[in-house]
Automatic annotation (TrEMBL):
The lineage of its organism: Eukaryota, Viridiplantae, Streptophyta, Embryophyta, Tracheophyta. Its main location: endoplasmic reticulum. It comes from the Eukaryota. The chain crosses the membrane at residues 26-48. GO terms for cellular component: endoplasmic reticulum membrane. It comes from Pyrus ussuriensis x Pyrus communis. Pfam families: SPT_ssu-like. It is found in: Endoplasmic reticulum membrane. Keywords: Endoplasmic reticulum, Membrane, Transmembrane, Transmembrane helix. PANTHER family: OS07G0446900 PROTEIN (PTHR33727), PROTEIN, PUTATIVE (DUF3317)-RELATED (PTHR33727:SF5). This is Uncharacterized protein.
Length: 58
């Protein structure tokens, strides 16, 4: 078992995905990816606005 397979196995065991069917696992992983994308996208937009406001104060 190489490093990547071990990390995937650890992810499956940690979140209990090993007991789900393939389509349930796919659905869960899709929701996780969408949530992470949403957080990163909105976080970057917030940081851009925050940076603009900080520059105006200086």
């Amino acid at each position: 078992m190489n490093w990547v397979q071990r990390k995937i196995y650890l992810y499956n065991v940690t979140f209990g995905l090993y007991m789900l069917d393939w389509w349930e696992r796919y659905l869960f992983n899709t929701l996780v990816v969408v949530l992470l994308w949403f957080l990163c996208y909105n976080g970057s937009r917030y940081l851009m606005e925050f940076g603009k406001s900080v520059r105006r104060l200086w």
